[in-house]
Design brief:
- The protein is mainly beta.
- It has no helices and 30 strands.
């Protein structure tokens, strides 16, 4: 928007690449459809508030619909390989990570992805945000097992952290890896079966944390009621955190101190005037090489300057959970409710590098 013994190495990765033209798969009563041609259907529109948006998104840009039929898609992550690369993303209710590759379509990459227990764990038990560490290993924000984990090169998972001062985390939501290897992540209660008031909850706040490469966990701030998406500026001197609070839907900018902790945050963008106008609210976000934010908000992805000026919107018309740069760094993939979409831009992700 999760529970595991610390030393336990769990399940193996399951990877299936589906051949043939298009996939129509019945799963839990929903039909998953993956277009595998290069002629994808399109949705939505680009809303241009400032001329500067034309330097980032070309006038003829289209929102391509790559696949549909998911329950709640989240946490997109581009994986580079010798074949050109592929996208991974979470389907949280199905406790799965899905793989999409151009020309091959979709397949199951991992299940379970965020909950390995034996009883029902509510509506959103799976993994949420995904990230890469400096060695190219996948970092998982896990709802059900309430931890930050890492997929090891030989296929097993390792718990990196699941508690703070002896109390279990709420449900890690999104993460970003700093250039020194530290993992910054948010911990709202969305993955708990009963949310904020769940009796399983042990922390009385929702925090933004830093997990250092030495394994030390530091609480950076607990001032945000529902911290969610998280990203660094290109110079890593600002940490952006989105808040998915219907009463106060904002993005805050925190200066990053030399020791990696945060200074006093300020509101960069306020979505309150758009509440109820379009579906959804602030969730995941990414930053381009110029420092512009591509931040999900009501009805799509908002393009916002580092000064907080709205340049335009990638209007999907649906609840839009997150986004990620892919391919050569200029393609923005978006998880849009039950859809997977993308748009080709004229910019690139901040400090883009192929893993």
């Amino acid at each position: 928007m999760q529970r595991m013994l610390k030393s336990r190495v769990c399940f193996l990765t399951i990877m299936i690449i589906i051949p043939a033209c298009s996939l129509r798969k019945e799963s839990q009563g929903q039909r998953i459809i993956s277009q595998q041609s290069t002629d994808f259907p399109t949705i939505g529109k680009i809303v241009r508030h400032e001329n500067r948006i034309n330097d980032l998104i070309p006038p003829d840009a289209k929102i391509e619909l790559l696949a549909s039929g998911f329950e709640w898609s989240e946490g997109p992550l581009w994986m580079q390989d010798a074949g050109g690369g592929y996208l991974l993303f979470s389907d949280i209710p199905r406790n799965s990570v899905i793989k999409w590759q151009e020309g091959a379509g979709i397949g199951l990459f991992m299940k379970p992805s965020g909950y390995t227990g034996i009883t029902d764990y509510g509506r959103e038990p799976g993994s949420n945000g995904l990230a890469l560490d400096l060695q190219g290993r996948i970092i998982f924000c896990e709802h059900g097992d309430r931890r930050i984990s890492r997929l090891e090169k030989r296929g097993g998972k390792k718990t990196l952290v699941d508690s703070y001062v002896g109390k279990r985390l709420n449900s890690p939501n999104d993460a970003v890896v700093k250039s020194n290897g530290d993992i910054y992540f948010t911990d709202p209660p969305y993955g708990l079966p009963k949310g904020y008031g769940d009796p399983r909850r042990e922390l009385d706040f929702c925090g933004v944390f830093r997990l250092s490469t030495s394994g030390e966990l530091t609480l950076l701030t607990k001032e945000m009621a529902r911290p969610n998406g998280i990203a660094f500026s290109p110079a890593e001197d600002i940490l952006y955190v989105a808040q998915s609070d219907s009463k106060n839907p904002i993005i805050k900018a925190f200066p990053v101190k030399s020791d990696g902790t945060l200074g006093s945050g300020k509101v960069l963008y306020d979505f309150r005037s758009l509440r109820g106008k379009y579906p959804g609210g602030p969730d995941g976000l990414k930053v381009d090489r110029h420092g512009n934010l591509f931040a999900t908000g009501p009805g799509g992805v908002y393009v916002i300057t580092p000064e907080g000026k709205l340049l335009g919107r990638i209007h999907t018309g649906k609840r839009t959970s997150n986004c990620a740069w892919g391919n050569d760094g200029s393609v923005l993939y978006m998880t849009v409710d039950d859809y997977l979409c993308r748009i080709k831009t004229k910019t690139k992700g901040a400090n883009w590098r192929n893993m």
